[in-house]
Design a protein that fits this description.
Elements: H1 6-11, E1 33-41, E2 44-50, E3 56-57, E4 65-72, E5 78-85, E6 88-95, E7 103-107, E8 109-113, E9 119-124, E10 127-132, E11 138-140, E12 149-154, E13 160-167, E14 170-177, E15 183-186, E16 194-201, E17 204-211, E18 214-221, E19 228-232, E20 234-239, E21 245-249, E22 252-257, E23 262-265, E24 274-282, E25 311-317, E26 326-331, E27 337-339, E28 347-355, E29 361-368, E30 374-380, E31 388-389, E32 398-403, E33 409-414, E34 417-422, E35 425-430, E36 438-443, E37 449-454, E38 461-466, E39 472-476, E40 483-488, E41 493-499, E42 507-513, E43 520-521, E44 531-536, E45 541-546, E46 556-561, E47 567-569, E48 582-589
Antiparallel strand pairs: 1-2, 1-24, 2-3, 4-5, 5-6, 6-7, 8-9, 9-10, 10-11, 12-13, 13-14, 14-15, 16-17, 17-18, 18-19, 20-21, 21-22, 22-23, 25-26, 25-48, 26-27, 28-29, 29-30, 30-31, 32-33, 33-34, 34-35, 36-37, 37-38, 38-39, 40-41, 41-42, 42-43, 44-45, 45-46, 46-47
């Protein structure tokens, strides 16, 4: 198993022999955990969300050598790590939410955040030091000539540090009061070594021991001279939620409760060959939207083409400026593909349809024959009657409509603002009177927020509007990179489209999070083609459009899995779906 940093190779070589009693308390139940995790894998830093997030290689384009020893801020947004430059370890800061080039902080290694995220403990030339993350000022804590200090970890209240240090040919653990800089050695024994200390709750910590080459994680309390072994064959402990740690065991990551000895596999994708740090929190109950009835969909496999029984609305045109868009509904259960726009008399160029949660209505944008402008329409699938224009008044440019998850409202773009209207009609409510340049809105599942695309071109970003406070937050804003078209998946996440980089304008698909956690690139992304217009299905499957090799027109519709990366053309379901034109803007509804 790969070690995380050169120091960790040493820290893991020793174990304790003066053990306390083995833990035999009742195991704790596995908590539901969600958050961000960063590992070192095959010499690169890789991020993933917990549970189940696909791995994203962060350090692929970074210039420093040997990026390692990742430390995450408590909010999961800032990553500090060590990298080699000109033969010396340096500390760098990287913002996971923006993806900008890492910032050089200071010479040093083995970083560790305080619980409030305001300070960083690290080793500099074998001495312990603390950096104020706001002012970037550094305070030295040790001044010994032989410089034995290697790794430090803050206590939860921030008043003390646990640290590793060399004593003879063994590594031991010490504890330092930060204010007085007084310290003491814990579990003193010249024949054994202890390493990698971390607190998992107030006054309680764990560390790594080794007995004849067998790694174990032990736990102890402040002020006690005894400890106990809780996880045999385990290494690399890191604090997770209160009372729990994440650790490595037999090449896999586990979630452990040191007080009871309970351990559970951590639900991640890919192989985390070396582990360093995690920030996770207990998931709160959330409103995940209306319950979808059983309909025959089978999306249980992440490899086999899913069996779908619902319906999909999409549009097809030769080009946007040709004004020749037509709208179709494909029924996966019957195999019928119906051009629903045939015979519509009061509008032209319909596009960007979206199903209501009950599957009975479709809202879309089109150019009104009478108004001469873009308007928002409502089509009743059950009757097939002519669509109703919800916004006939004024010559506004109304676009990008999406239903709320309770099916009662529609949010859309009016000129450069976000607006909403009731499904029954009525007056339009402007949601962002003081903000402009906003488009492509989509409700959160509870209806209290709207995720949207803001700005234009290189200045675009993915933002979040809180409808109760009118506050706007920028969730994803990579410098010079186009980001747009967010589509809500569930209570915590959404898909969106972004360019590869400021210099590569190929569209790629990403999974974003309402709390601003680092985004996840879809496993099927390929910079040789465009991938956009995500439409959630279920079980990690999504429908999207792409210009990838083998497409019949400019854009074809595909279904792919976000983690496994497998892709199937929707022509596998029916040869009537993709054509020599561009097929775009899909919306799937499993409810019939």
């Amino acid at each position: 198993m790969r070690r995380i940093l050169p120091l960790a190779i040493l820290l893991a070589l020793f174990s304790c022999t003066d053990k306390g009693p083995e833990n035999n308390t009742v195991p704790a139940e596995k908590p539901d955990v969600r958050g961000t995790l960063v590992c070192e894998e095959a010499g690169a830093l890789v991020a993933r969300t917990v549970p189940g997030g696909a791995p994203v290689k962060l350090s692929q384009l970074w210039k420093m050598a040997r990026p390692s020893a990742p430390a995450l801020s408590p909010d999961g947004k800032t990553l500090v790590f060590q990298g080699m430059e000109k033969g010396k370890w340096q500390l760098y800061s990287y913002e996971l939410t923006t993806g900008e080039e890492p910032e050089l902080l200071v010479e040093g290694s083995a970083p560790s955040f305080s619980a409030d995220g305001k300070r960083l403990a690290f080793s500099k030339n074998g001495q312990l030091a603390i950096m104020n993350m706001e002012t970037k000022t550094v305070r030295a804590l040790t001044f010994e000539a032989d410089a034995p200090y290697q790794q430090a970890s803050f206590s939860p209240d921030g008043t003390a540090l646990l640290y590793s240090f060399m004593q003879g040919n063994r590594i031991q653990i010490g504890r330092m009061d930060i204010e007085s800089m007084s310290s003491q050695t814990l579990f003193r024994n010249p024949d054994v070594g202890h390493s990698s200390p971390v607190y998992y709750s107030e006054g309680k910590f764990c560390f790594v021991s080794r007995d004849g080459g067998n790694y174990s994680i032990c736990s102890a309390s402040d002020g006690s001279s005894s400890f106990k072994t809780v996880f045999k064959g385990a290494d690399c402990p890191a604090p997770a939620i209160p009372g729990w740690i994440v650790f490595s065991k037999a090449g896999s990551l586990c979630l452990g409760h040191p007080e009871s000895g309970a351990e559970y596999p951590l639900e991640i994708s890919g192989d985390a060959s070396a582990f360093s740090s995690a920030v996770v929190s207990i998931a709160e109950p959330v409103n995940s939207g209306p319950v979808t009835p059983e309909n025959g969909d089978d999306t249980s496999s992440d490899q086999q083409q899913p069996v779908l029984k619902g319906r999909m609305v999409y549009h097809s045109y030769s080009s946007y400026n040709a004004r020749d868009s037509r709208m179709f509904v494909y029924d996966f259960s019957t195999g019928e593909n119906t051009e629903i726009s045939r015979g519509w008399t009061a509008l032209v160029n319909p596009m960007n349809g979206h199903f209501s949660p009950d599957g009975k209505l479709i809202t879309f944008m089109a150019e009104g024959s009478d108004t001469g402008s873009w308007d928002i329409y409502l089509y009743d699938v059950t009757t097939g009657a002519q669509p109703v224009n919800l916004t006939p008044s004024g010559s506004y440019r109304d676009e990008d409509p999406k239903f709320s998850f309770d099916g009662r409202k529609i949010v859309f773009k009016r000129e450069d603002h976000l607006a909403e209207i009731g499904v029954e009609g009525g007056s339009v409510r402007i949601l962002t009177p003081d903000q402009s340049g906003l488009s492509m809105p989509f409700y959160s599942t509870d209806g209290n927020k709207v995720v949207f695309g803001g700005g234009d071109g290189a200045n675009s970003y993915i933002g979040l509007l809180d409808l109760t406070t009118s506050r706007i937050t920028r969730l994803y804003d990579r410098t010079g990179v186009v980001e747009y078209y967010p589509v809500t998946i569930d209570a915590t996440s959404f898909y969106y489209t972004a360019h590869v980089s400021a210099d590569d304008n190929h569209d790629q698909l990403f999974k974003g999070f309402f709390d601003g956690s680092n985004c996840i690139a879809m496993a099927f992304n390929n910079a040789r083609a465009d991938y956009s217009d995500a439409c959630p299905v279920s079980g990690g499957w999504l429908i999207f459009c792409s210009t990838r090799s083998g497409s019949q027109g400019g854009y074809d519709l595909y279904i792919g899995h976000e983690i496994s990366g497998v892709i199937y053309s929707l022509n596998n379901y029916s040869s009537t779906i993709n054509s020599s034109l561009n097929e775009l803007g899909a919306s799937y509804c499993a409810v019939r």
